[in-house]
Protein backbone atom coordinates (compact mmCIF):
# COMPACT_ATOMS: atom_id res chain seq x y z
CA UNK A 1 0.00 0.00 0.00
CA UNK A 2 1.52 3.39 -0.97
CA UNK A 3 2.23 5.79 1.88
CA UNK A 4 -0.14 8.70 2.40
CA UNK A 5 0.54 12.33 3.31
CA UNK A 6 -0.88 11.98 6.81
CA UNK A 7 -2.47 9.48 9.19
CA UNK A 8 -5.24 10.53 11.55
CA UNK A 9 -5.85 8.46 14.68
CA UNK A 10 -9.37 9.02 15.99
CA UNK A 11 -12.07 9.90 13.49
CA UNK A 12 -15.08 11.22 15.38
CA UNK A 13 -17.15 14.16 14.21
CA UNK A 14 -14.20 16.57 14.30
CA UNK A 15 -11.81 14.01 12.84
CA UNK A 16 -14.21 13.30 9.99
CA UNK A 17 -14.43 17.02 9.18
CA UNK A 18 -10.63 17.21 9.18
CA UNK A 19 -10.30 14.27 6.80
CA UNK A 20 -12.92 15.74 4.48
CA UNK A 21 -11.06 19.06 4.38
CA UNK A 22 -7.76 17.32 3.61
CA UNK A 23 -9.33 15.30 0.82
CA UNK A 24 -10.79 18.48 -0.67
CA UNK A 25 -7.29 19.99 -0.70
CA UNK A 26 -5.80 16.97 -2.47
CA UNK A 27 -4.01 15.30 0.46
CA UNK A 28 -3.89 11.53 0.78
CA UNK A 29 -5.07 10.33 4.19
CA UNK A 30 -4.92 7.14 6.23
CA UNK A 31 -7.58 6.79 8.95
CA UNK A 32 -7.72 4.63 12.07
CA UNK A 33 -10.60 4.61 14.52
CA UNK A 34 -11.26 2.45 17.55
CA UNK A 35 -14.69 1.64 16.14
CA UNK A 36 -14.15 1.03 12.40
CA UNK A 37 -17.87 0.64 11.74
CA UNK A 38 -18.84 4.28 12.05
CA UNK A 39 -20.92 5.16 8.97
CA UNK A 40 -18.90 8.26 8.08
CA UNK A 41 -15.72 6.18 7.78
CA UNK A 42 -17.20 4.34 4.82
CA UNK A 43 -18.19 7.65 3.23
CA UNK A 44 -14.66 9.03 3.67
CA UNK A 45 -13.14 5.84 2.29
CA UNK A 46 -15.40 6.14 -0.74
CA UNK A 47 -14.07 9.69 -1.15
CA UNK A 48 -10.49 8.44 -1.29
CA UNK A 49 -9.23 8.07 2.30
CA UNK A 50 -7.59 4.80 3.36
CA UNK A 51 -9.33 3.09 6.29
CA UNK A 52 -6.74 0.99 8.13
CA UNK A 53 -7.95 -1.41 10.84
CA UNK A 54 -4.51 -2.03 12.38
CA UNK A 55 -3.07 0.87 14.39
CA UNK A 56 0.55 -0.09 13.77
CA UNK A 57 -0.04 -0.24 10.03
CA UNK A 58 -1.88 3.10 10.09
CA UNK A 59 0.99 4.81 11.93
CA UNK A 60 3.55 3.29 9.56
CA UNK A 61 1.64 4.45 6.49
CA UNK A 62 2.47 8.17 6.89
CA UNK A 63 5.39 10.27 8.08
CA UNK A 64 2.95 12.73 9.71
CA UNK A 65 0.43 11.56 12.30
CA UNK A 66 -2.39 13.58 13.82
CA UNK A 67 -4.00 12.33 17.05
CA UNK A 68 -7.61 13.47 17.26
CA UNK A 69 -8.58 12.08 20.66
CA UNK A 70 -10.49 13.37 23.66
CA UNK A 71 -7.88 12.97 26.41
CA UNK A 72 -4.20 12.32 27.05
CA UNK A 73 -5.12 8.97 28.58
CA UNK A 74 -6.38 7.86 25.17
CA UNK A 75 -2.98 8.63 23.65
CA UNK A 76 -1.01 6.65 26.22
CA UNK A 77 -3.48 3.78 26.02
CA UNK A 78 -3.28 3.55 22.24
CA UNK A 79 0.44 4.09 21.74
CA UNK A 80 2.06 2.50 24.79
CA UNK A 81 2.22 -0.81 22.93
CA UNK A 82 3.79 0.79 19.85
CA UNK A 83 6.46 3.20 21.05
CA UNK A 84 7.68 4.74 24.32
CA UNK A 85 7.06 8.43 24.69
CA UNK A 86 6.73 11.00 27.45
CA UNK A 87 3.48 12.91 27.63
CA UNK A 88 3.62 16.69 27.39
CA UNK A 89 1.55 18.81 29.74
CA UNK A 90 1.68 22.42 30.92
CA UNK A 91 3.96 21.48 33.83
CA UNK A 92 5.68 18.53 32.21
CA UNK A 93 7.18 19.27 28.79
CA UNK A 94 8.60 16.36 26.85
CA UNK A 95 12.28 15.65 27.30
CA UNK A 96 14.03 16.45 24.02
CA UNK A 97 16.82 14.02 24.92
CA UNK A 98 14.37 11.12 25.11
CA UNK A 99 12.45 11.83 21.93
CA UNK A 100 13.14 9.84 18.80
CA UNK A 101 15.13 11.92 16.25
CA UNK A 102 12.30 11.89 13.71
CA UNK A 103 9.44 12.45 16.12
CA UNK A 104 7.71 15.82 16.07
CA UNK A 105 5.30 16.45 18.92
CA UNK A 106 2.46 18.84 18.14
CA UNK A 107 -0.05 20.10 20.66
CA UNK A 108 -3.03 21.48 18.78
CA UNK A 109 -6.45 22.81 19.49
CA UNK A 110 -9.25 23.17 16.97
CA UNK A 111 -11.79 25.95 17.56
CA UNK A 112 -15.57 25.72 17.38
CA UNK A 113 -17.73 23.08 15.69
CA UNK A 114 -16.72 20.70 12.87
CA UNK A 115 -18.95 22.55 10.39
CA UNK A 116 -17.04 25.77 11.14
CA UNK A 117 -13.72 24.17 10.23
CA UNK A 118 -11.29 26.62 8.61
CA UNK A 119 -13.79 29.48 8.66
CA UNK A 120 -13.52 30.21 12.40
CA UNK A 121 -11.03 27.67 13.75
CA UNK A 122 -7.57 28.23 15.20
CA UNK A 123 -4.78 25.74 15.71
CA UNK A 124 -2.11 26.41 18.32
CA UNK A 125 1.11 24.48 17.85
CA UNK A 126 4.18 23.97 19.99
CA UNK A 127 7.07 21.55 20.09
CA UNK A 128 10.28 21.41 18.05
CA UNK A 129 11.33 24.56 16.20
CA UNK A 130 9.42 27.08 14.18
CA UNK A 131 11.27 25.83 11.10
CA UNK A 132 9.80 22.39 11.69
CA UNK A 133 6.30 23.82 11.70
CA UNK A 134 6.93 25.69 8.48
CA UNK A 135 7.46 22.29 6.87
CA UNK A 136 4.16 20.86 8.13
CA UNK A 137 2.11 24.03 7.83
CA UNK A 138 0.82 23.04 4.41
CA UNK A 139 -0.88 20.03 6.00
CA UNK A 140 -2.31 21.92 8.97
CA UNK A 141 -3.26 25.21 7.32
CA UNK A 142 -6.43 23.89 5.61
CA UNK A 143 -7.86 23.32 9.08
CA UNK A 144 -7.54 26.84 10.48
CA UNK A 145 -5.26 29.73 11.32
CA UNK A 146 -1.92 28.49 12.66
CA UNK A 147 -0.19 29.97 15.71
CA UNK A 148 3.30 28.77 16.60
CA UNK A 149 3.81 29.10 20.36
CA UNK A 150 7.17 27.70 21.48
CA UNK A 151 9.56 24.77 21.26
CA UNK A 152 8.17 23.32 24.48
CA UNK A 153 5.29 20.97 23.58
CA UNK A 154 3.56 21.87 26.84
CA UNK A 155 3.30 25.56 25.93
CA UNK A 156 0.40 25.20 23.51
CA UNK A 157 -1.37 23.17 26.17
CA UNK A 158 -1.46 26.28 28.36
CA UNK A 159 -2.90 28.36 25.52
CA UNK A 160 -5.45 25.64 24.90
CA UNK A 161 -6.63 25.33 28.49
CA UNK A 162 -6.63 29.11 28.98
CA UNK A 163 -8.91 29.61 25.98
CA UNK A 164 -11.27 26.82 27.00
CA UNK A 165 -11.39 28.02 30.62
CA UNK A 166 -12.29 31.54 29.48
CA UNK A 167 -14.92 30.12 27.14
CA UNK A 168 -16.48 28.01 29.88
CA UNK A 169 -16.45 30.98 32.24
CA UNK A 170 -18.37 32.95 29.62
CA UNK A 171 -20.84 30.07 29.28
CA UNK A 172 -21.29 29.99 33.05
CA UNK A 173 -22.23 33.66 33.08
CA UNK A 174 -24.41 33.25 30.00
CA UNK A 175 -26.36 30.37 31.50
CA UNK A 176 -26.84 32.36 34.68
CA UNK A 177 -28.25 35.18 32.53
CA UNK A 178 -30.66 32.73 30.92
CA UNK A 179 -31.85 31.57 34.34
CA UNK A 180 -32.51 35.17 35.28
CA UNK A 181 -34.38 35.85 32.03
CA UNK A 182 -36.71 32.95 32.73
CA UNK A 183 -38.17 35.17 35.46
CA UNK A 184 -39.65 37.54 32.87
CA UNK A 185 -43.37 37.82 33.47
CA UNK A 186 -45.67 36.67 30.71
CA UNK A 187 -48.57 38.80 29.55
CA UNK A 188 -51.89 37.17 30.44
CA UNK A 189 -52.88 34.46 27.94
CA UNK A 190 -49.56 34.83 26.12
CA UNK A 191 -46.57 32.53 25.99
CA UNK A 192 -43.53 33.22 28.16
CA UNK A 193 -41.23 36.01 26.93
CA UNK A 194 -38.29 34.93 24.82
CA UNK A 195 -34.93 34.22 26.43
CA UNK A 196 -33.20 34.13 23.05
CA UNK A 197 -34.21 37.66 22.08
CA UNK A 198 -32.42 39.52 24.92
CA UNK A 199 -29.47 37.12 24.74
CA UNK A 200 -28.93 37.93 21.07
CA UNK A 201 -29.81 41.65 21.27
CA UNK A 202 -28.21 42.62 24.59
CA UNK A 203 -25.97 39.95 26.12
CA UNK A 204 -23.92 38.86 23.10
CA UNK A 205 -23.18 42.43 21.87
CA UNK A 206 -22.13 43.41 25.40
CA UNK A 207 -19.79 40.43 25.67
CA UNK A 208 -18.32 41.24 22.25
CA UNK A 209 -17.62 44.85 23.23
CA UNK A 210 -15.95 43.69 26.46
CA UNK A 211 -13.39 41.36 24.88
CA UNK A 212 -10.74 44.03 24.07
CA UNK A 213 -10.84 45.08 27.74
CA UNK A 214 -9.69 41.58 28.68
CA UNK A 215 -6.57 42.15 26.59
CA UNK A 216 -5.94 45.46 28.39
CA UNK A 217 -6.13 43.72 31.76
CA UNK A 218 -3.67 41.09 30.53
CA UNK A 219 -1.25 43.83 29.44
CA UNK A 220 -1.43 45.39 32.91
CA UNK A 221 -0.75 41.95 34.41
CA UNK A 222 2.36 41.55 32.22
CA UNK A 223 3.57 44.98 33.37
CA UNK A 224 2.60 44.28 37.01
CA UNK A 225 0.86 47.65 36.97
CA UNK A 226 -1.73 47.07 39.68
CA UNK A 227 -2.95 50.68 39.61
CA UNK A 228 -3.91 50.65 35.91
CA UNK A 229 -7.69 50.70 36.25
CA UNK A 230 -8.83 52.08 32.86
CA UNK A 231 -11.08 54.58 34.69
CA UNK A 232 -12.94 51.66 36.22
CA UNK A 233 -11.32 51.01 39.63
CA UNK A 234 -12.03 47.97 41.73
CA UNK A 235 -14.19 49.97 44.17
CA UNK A 236 -16.51 50.99 41.32
CA UNK A 237 -16.53 47.45 39.96
CA UNK A 238 -17.40 46.12 43.39
CA UNK A 239 -20.37 48.46 43.87
CA UNK A 240 -21.81 47.56 40.49
CA UNK A 241 -21.22 43.88 40.99
CA UNK A 242 -22.91 43.84 44.38
CA UNK A 243 -25.95 45.46 42.77
CA UNK A 244 -26.01 42.56 40.31
CA UNK A 245 -25.75 40.02 43.13
CA UNK A 246 -28.61 41.66 45.01
CA UNK A 247 -30.80 41.54 41.91
CA UNK A 248 -30.06 37.84 41.50
CA UNK A 249 -30.92 37.17 45.14
CA UNK A 250 -34.22 39.01 44.81
CA UNK A 251 -35.10 36.93 41.76
CA UNK A 252 -34.04 33.77 43.61
CA UNK A 253 -31.28 32.93 41.15
CA UNK A 254 -28.16 31.29 42.59
CA UNK A 255 -25.09 33.53 42.82
CA UNK A 256 -22.73 30.59 43.31
CA UNK A 257 -21.26 30.92 39.82
CA UNK A 258 -20.29 34.56 40.50
CA UNK A 259 -19.10 34.22 44.08
CA UNK A 260 -15.46 33.69 43.13
CA UNK A 261 -15.33 36.96 41.18
CA UNK A 262 -16.86 38.78 44.15
CA UNK A 263 -14.24 37.30 46.48
CA UNK A 264 -11.43 38.37 44.12
CA UNK A 265 -12.78 41.92 43.93
CA UNK A 266 -12.91 42.14 47.72
CA UNK A 267 -9.36 40.83 48.06
CA UNK A 268 -8.01 43.28 45.48
CA UNK A 269 -9.69 46.22 47.21
CA UNK A 270 -8.39 45.07 50.57
CA UNK A 271 -4.78 44.56 49.43
CA UNK A 272 -4.35 47.33 46.83
CA UNK A 273 -6.95 49.95 47.70
CA UNK A 274 -10.02 51.50 46.09
CA UNK A 275 -8.26 52.71 42.93
CA UNK A 276 -6.63 49.42 41.97
CA UNK A 277 -7.29 47.75 38.64
CA UNK A 278 -8.24 44.13 38.12
CA UNK A 279 -4.90 42.81 36.82
CA UNK A 280 -3.74 41.36 40.13
CA UNK A 281 -6.76 39.07 40.10
CA UNK A 282 -4.93 37.25 37.31
CA UNK A 283 -2.56 35.86 39.95
CA UNK A 284 -4.85 35.20 42.90
CA UNK A 285 -5.85 31.71 41.79
CA UNK A 286 -2.30 30.38 41.45
CA UNK A 287 -1.69 27.52 43.86
CA UNK A 288 1.65 26.97 45.53
UniProtKB/TrEMBL annotation:
Domain 6-phosphogluconate dehydrogenase NADP-binding: start-end pairs: 5-79
Signal peptide from the UniProt entry: none
UniProt-recorded Gene Ontology molecular function terms: NADP binding
Pfam families named in the record: NAD_binding_2
InterPro entries the UniProt entry points to: 6PGD_dom2, 6PGDH_NADP-bd, NAD(P)-bd_dom_sf
Name used for this protein in its record: 6-phosphogluconate dehydrogenase NADP-binding domain-containing protein
Native source species: Fusarium oligoseptatum
